[in-house]
Amino acid sequence: MDARAIITKLRDKVPLERAEIVWFANGLADGNVTDAQAGAFAMAALLNGLSADEVVALTMAMRDSGKVMSWDLPGPVVDKHSTGGIGDAVSLLLAPALAALGAYVPMVSGRGLGHTGGTLDKLESIPGLKTEVTEERFRQIVSNVGTAIVSATGSIAPADKRLYAIRDVSGTVESIDLITASVLSKKLAAGLEVLVLDVKVGTGAFMKTMEDAVAQAESLVSTSNGAGCRTSALITDMNQPCATAVGNALEVMEVMQALSGAEIDNVLCDLTADLGGEVLVLAGMADDATEGAKQITETLRDGSAAERFGRMVTELGGPADFVDRWRDRLPAAPVVAEVKAGRAGYVTGMDGEAIGLAVVRLGGGRLKGGERIDPSVGLSDVAILGDRLEPDTPLCLVHAATPEAAEEAAAAVRAAYTIAEQVPDVPPVVYRRVG
Questions:
Q1: How far is 318 from 161, CA to CA, in rounded Å?
Q2: What structural domains and CATH numbers belong to the chain?
Q3: Which residues have a Cβ under 8 Å from the Cβ of 71 and sit 6 or more positions away?
Q4: Average pLDDT across the chain, whole number
Q5: What is the rounded CA–CA span in Å between residue 255 and residue 398?
Q6: Other residues' Cβ atoms within 10 Å of the Cβ of residue 273
Q7: CA distances (Å), 336 to each of 245, 347, 359, 408, 409, in order?
């Protein structure tokens, strides 16, 4: 077998044999497949699609390209995954909340893709914290704390780790089939019993239409359940940020506000509770999703989730006093500027992808592989759908490295907003459940 022949078959819509897919995944892991060949494979998969059998084969092959973990813990092993959005810091709240309730959350997460932020990039805005750990250390932290949010180690789904980075810079992020295989290869390699998926739909998501979101959710749920992991999905709104901040350290600040109990009546916390409720039901820890959601919210109110988060931060190399002194510990951008609305009316729409790309161009994300991220930049105090604005009302605050970068971002933000006189219909946080 060779990579060129496999790519040619996929390009020409000739079904791939399972052995060919396994060979290609192993080639991604061991370097026998080049970056150019990986990019060509991803583009052919995006344009032509993979069959259901090919998606399962690719998922299992990428999972089996490295270590497949198993656990012996006194509680259910669970996780949640989002398909990507802006201002989506749910994982940083949900993982410690679930741990506080007695679940174990070995969360193998990712970095930013395209216009969306990455959980690892957000977490690493905490000084000293490193998400790359050995498998032994990963196991220790999960056992001791109840959760660890880490990058895929060299031993966990190495084929996906390589393809994931190539998709980010080759314009192939949006493939439903590759998203399914990428998400589940890592999650199934982590030895999960329960997985809940947050499938985003809207202007800030990779899936812009409900039809695409449902297709993605059904692909993920059917593949994961077929592999023996109890799985469901919520299709959730991404026509605006989950939080009122977009950017790594700025989103961590919102997380800490919630973990301190100071601000838990917002979309970010509501979505965290909804997803957590699903996890607890599938894990047999709640009778229904409403009861489970209440349990999650209580961990934010009583400080037990904050305690778990603080312990995880310390175990990953961050400051031991982070929960108490996070305002002093997180990096701050040298330039902070208001972006005025410029006209009166209601926020009736926003281009979430454009807002995400504005943060990327500030330095808060990557335009090409290997670029360093400035964790301090981004947008805060973001106006949301339904807000009433006057001409001098800020749409947001831009946090930038230079005045010139702030001006460029401000122009992009203004262009991303739609302001009109009519009061808009604000979308729900959760549209529907799949599974």
A1: 24
A2: 3-63 (1.20.970.10), 78-326 (3.40.1030.10), 335-420 (3.90.1170.30)
A3: 77, 104, 106, 142, 191
A4: 94
A5: 19
A6: 27
A7: 13, 22, 13, 13, 11
CA–CA dist 27, 311 (Å, integer): 38
Using the Cα atoms of residue 236, residue 238, residue 241 and residue 246 in order, give the sign of their dihedral. Answer: positive
3-class DSSP string for 371-423:
CCCCCCCEEECCCCCCCEECCCCEEEEEEECCHHHHHHHHHHHHHHEEEECCC
**How confident is the model at residue 161, as a pLDDT?**
87
How many residues are recorded in the chain?
A: 435
The residue behind tokens 């001409």 is 391
pTM of the model: 0.88
User: Catalytic amino acids?
Assistant: 79-82, 119, 167, 182, 186-187
- Tell me how far the alpha carbon of residue 382 is from its chain's centroid: 19
Closest CA to 417 of 358, 334, 329: 358
Local structure of residue 365 (DSSP, 8 states): S
Contact 142, 69 (CB under 8 A): no
Tell me the C-alpha distance between 125 and 76, whole Å. 30
CA distance 124 to 120: 6
Token pair 């992808």 is at which residue?
353
Q: 120-152 burial by CB neighbour count: b if 16+ within 10 A, else e?
A: bbbbbbbeebebebeeeebbebbeebbbbbbbb
**Beta strands of 257-393 (E only): which ranges?**
335-340, 345-350, 378-380, 388-389
Q: Is the pLDDT of residue 28 over 90?
A: yes
420 — phi, psi (to 5°)?
-145, 170
Burial 21-35 (b: 16+ CB within 10 A, else e): bbbbbbbbbeeebee
Q: What pLDDT shows up at residue 108? A: 87
